[in-house]
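Researcher: Structure for this, please.
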Amino acid sequence: MVDFIDKPISRKASQPLEVEEVMGFLRKRWGVTYELKLLVKGKSLFLQIMWGYLEQQSFSLTEEEYREELSKIIEIINRLDQTSEVRTWLFNQDRKPRLGRALSLPLRAGEGLEEFLL
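Model: Predicted structure, token format:
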């Protein structure tokens, strides 16, 4: 498992995100593995950390399904070249999601963004 919190952001900024890295970061930062979602609003794309988490009894996904969904999200982030922004945001996030209130990061519009907004 990649130990994201202990590594300086600048060393990893341009490297693609990985499922284990993000899961490890979430667990180390908040003690649980929060659900991540991509939200499309108009022509904008947002990465959200939701309030539900894998370790919750009522969580709707198995660990395998969670990893698959997270992998899809990470692939989009990597293809949009947003890894540095996402790492910085995750690393500097001092709040945590609450019931009904997700944390949200607007992803910068680029050439490839329209491909995901169809």
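Researcher: Any notable elements?
Model: The first strand starts at residue 34 and ends at 41. Residues 1-11 have pLDDT under 50 and may be disordered.
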